[in-house]
Write a structure and sequence with these properties.
54% of the residues lie in helices and 6% in strands. It has 139 residues and is mostly helical. The longest helix has 18 residues.
Length: 139
Amino acid sequence: MHITQESDYAIRIIYCLAKNQKRMDARSISEEMGVSLRFALKILGKLVNNGLVASFKGNRGGYELARPAERITMLDVITAVEGPYKLSRCLDGCDQSCNRGASGICAFQKVFRRISCQVNDELQAVTFAQVVQESQTQQ
């Protein structure tokens, strides 16, 4: 099981902006992160719409983080492009009902919910400031 390519690229785009700590144009971001310009623009649009990235038009336009890197988590980015992370389709909604129409909560749903919560907690614990700092100490 993998995150989608779109989530992977969104994480890289946020990392690029966090690492460079400046306004960047879409072409520079796409080249630095190895993402096609078209796909980078699509992802940047989602990140802007979800308040993670700010967009500026004009001669000095481009993109920058909308809030400090220490306040952006990996979960924020994945949720912005994919929606809430859940291990199984049976976890749609918060009502804990079975999407197959069965009564009650099945054993699988309990396990999938527990694992999904653990993954979400781990992703929420990782900020882009931490990732940038770790990458700088490895160099």
